[in-house]
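Subject: for your reference before the review

Hello V.,

The reviewers asked for a structural picture of the protein, and I figured it would be easier to keep everything in one thread rather than splitting it across files. Below is the amino acid sequence we used in the manuscript, unchanged from the supplementary table.
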Amino acid sequence: MAGTWPWQRVAQSARYNAQTFRRSPLAEISGALGDLGTLLPLMAALALQGSVSLSSTLVFSGLFNIASGLWFGIPLPVQPMKAIAAAAIAEGASLRDTVAAGALVSAAVLLLAVTGLLRRLADVVPVPVVKGIQLGAGLSLVISAGNSSLLGNLGWLDRPSVLDNRLWALAAFVGLVLTQRMAPSGASSHARGGPLFLPYALVVFVVGLAIAIVVAVLHVGGGASHHLPRFAIWHPHVVLPHWLDRHAWAMAIAQLPLTTLNSVVAVSALAEELFTPSLLESLALSSSSFTPATSVTAFGCSVGAMNLVGCWFGAMPVCHGAGGLAVQYRFGARSGASVVLLGAAKLLLGLFLGETLLDLLRVFPRSLLGVLVLAAGLELASAGASLNTSTSHASLRGSGGEEAAQGGSSFTAIQKRERWTVMLMTAGCLLAFKNDAVGFVAGLVCHGAYRLADKLEERRSSRNLLRRPGHGENRALLS
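And here is what came back from the structure prediction:
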């Protein structure tokens, strides 16, 4: 779509979206629900502890969904910045700290995108360090699921109520284990089994929402009375981010490599792989002049713009993500129509219900919400499993010259062990010090130490090659 005006790009994308939706409306609607399993528990947990504004998050994430669907023309997700969300939930971060962290990341990504330095920066940060941040952030979510605000203080039968206790948590956990094979397993570009229509996290969230409605109406378990959502026009309030707070900077530093690699570079590579001309032909849309926008610069500018707008109103820090794109594709989405529909629903909820939804979130069963946060953490932590596989390097192209040199998964046993050590060093220090920035620096230092050892070994080997038999100090004085 090079050489077209912005309104022409939007018009072409809108036509493609409309054609695809008319061809397979159920698949597009199903695909729109694919990434809610990560969004809902994180948004609910952050809103309940006051780290984000629920109404602003719904309004702005809905607007971003609509804008992304119309501009890019693909089911591009708008999902939480997971490293920031994990740290904010674990540490109970304030609203001003959370939005400042998201805005700082977005400002850096936007600067890197417009200056053309984004891909070069991606080359500097090694994949094992990024995987370590993912692993550590995911395990932080797993740990936070067991704290006192979620699963920690639950009883077996009547604490806090018969509709929220360890039995419900156990049932949800068993369901999570039994439905593992039902979850999309990756970014397969042409799934033949058809889209799944039963996302585990969405089902559990709907069950929890039904229980919350019952509790709110019948006041089960005593305590303060709660109300059902009611009509309430959104009244935006300006929030001044805590720009200089050290917690905000720590969260931003940890999120930055994750965003640049997974939310920009990986999304670009995956979009190019999934939305090929052959796919358009299979959709009987070859006559369309639409070509999806898949450049790193475009995705970087998008991530930068979103939070630099939403941060002033308390919206949750958001980004794009290769995992979310793969999941929504797996559930059937093939165009931006899916995320436009999702964005419209979120926008309406934020505009006309807004903060009144918090009453339901307050009585949402902690047993189910805790398992949802656990599931989201496990999903994020599972990214470490692909560290030494070709899939990891195909999606994180350009990241770390070592990967390109090794040609995908052709690492030696020693190299694989070293890469696992770097990832575990990053995740371990993140968890031990409860600081994502410390884990990031520790991973870089560990990776640098291995690379320095490689350089020293190369120099030693080159010197040995120069010493040929019969020459040098060991040469006999008399031949």
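For the response letter, the relevant points are probably these. Confidence is low (pLDDT under 50) at residues 184-197, 394-401, 404-408, 471-479. The CA atoms of residues 51 and 95 lie 4 Å apart.

Happy to draft the paragraph if you're swamped.

O.
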